[in-house]
Amino acid sequence: MESMGANPVFLVSGAGMALVALGSVFWWKRGGVRWWYFGWGAFAWAVGVALKFLWAFLLNRRIYELLRASFPENVSNPLFWAYVGLLTGFFECGIVLLLGRWLEGLREAGWREAVGFGVGFGAVEALLLGLSSLATVIIVLTAPEKLPPAVLKQFAMRGGAILWALAPIVERASAILVHVFSNVLIILSLRSRLWKWFWLSFIYKTAVDSFAAFAQLSYGLGTLRHLWTVELVVVIFGLVGLWGTGAVKGKFEGGVQG
Q1: Mind giving me the DSSP string for 103-156?
Q2: How many CB atoms lie within 10 A of CB 219?
Q3: Residue 7: what are its φ and ψ, rounded to 5°?
C-alpha cells in the first residue's frame, strides 16, 4: 500500500463519529430524560437493522437480478433504489411502531423523551460505525497485510485526506437528526392515534435511504466532488429533520390530536 494510504488523519473519522454519538446522548440527557428512552432507542435500531440485514442477505441479489431481467437499466436501477429505501422504512419504522404498541412508556412519551429515543436510535449506529472505523484504520496503520486490497484502497488517497476523513462525521451527525425526526413522528402517531404521522416518517426515511442507495450503487463516492455532493444532500435531509422535530413539539406539549 502507498504511504498516503496509512495517513493517521483517517483516525479522525472514527473518533469523530464516536464523539458525535456520545456527545448527542449526553447533551440531550442534561434535560433530565431517563436512560430508559435512549436504551430502547438503541434496542429498536439493533432489532430493525438486524432484520433488514437478514432480509437483504437472503433476497436482495435475487430481487436485483429480477429487476434487471424485467426492465431496462434506466428503470430497474431506480426501482432497486426505491426498494432499498422501502426496506429501511419497513424495518426501521415498523419495529418502532411495534415496540411502541408494546411499551406504554414509549407510546405516552413526551417530546423530550421521544427525541431521547431517537437520539439513542441514531447514536448507537454512529458509535458502532465510529469504533469500526477506528479499528480498521488502526489495522491499516499497524498491520495492513491483514486487510484485503479492497479495504486498503479506500485509504489510498493522494490528496484531501482531511476532507475524506470529515465526511463520515458530517454524515453521522445528519443521520442522527434524521433518526430523531423519524422516531418522534412515530411516537406522535402512537400518542395521537393518527396514522398520517407514521406514514410521514415512513416516507421521509424511505426517501433518505433511497437516495443513499442511489449514491452508493450508481452515483459513486470515489471522488471528493461526488462524496461531498452526496453529503450536502444528506445534510439537507438532516436539517429538514431538525426543523420538523421542532415543528411538532407543540403537538406533544399542547396535546393536539391533529
Answers
A1: -HHHHT--HHHHHHHHHHHHHHHHHHHHHHHHHHHHHHHH-GGGS-HHHHHHT-
A2: 14
A3: -65, 120
Instruction: Look at the pTM and tell me if it is higher than 0.85.
Output: yes
pLDDT digits (tens, 9 = 90+) for 67-85: 999 999 999 999 999 999 9
Burial 206-218 (b: 16+ CB within 10 A, else e): bbbbbbbbbbeee
In whole numbers, what is the pLDDT of the chain averaged over residues?
Answer: 92
Q: Where are the alpha helices (DSSP H) in the chain?
A: 11-29, 35-70, 73-88, 94-102, 104-107, 111-142, 149-154, 161-192, 195-214, 224-247, 249-253
Task: Retrieve residue 257's grid coordinates.
Answer: 390530536
| Rounded distance between C-alpha atoms, residue 87 and residue 213, angstroms | 11
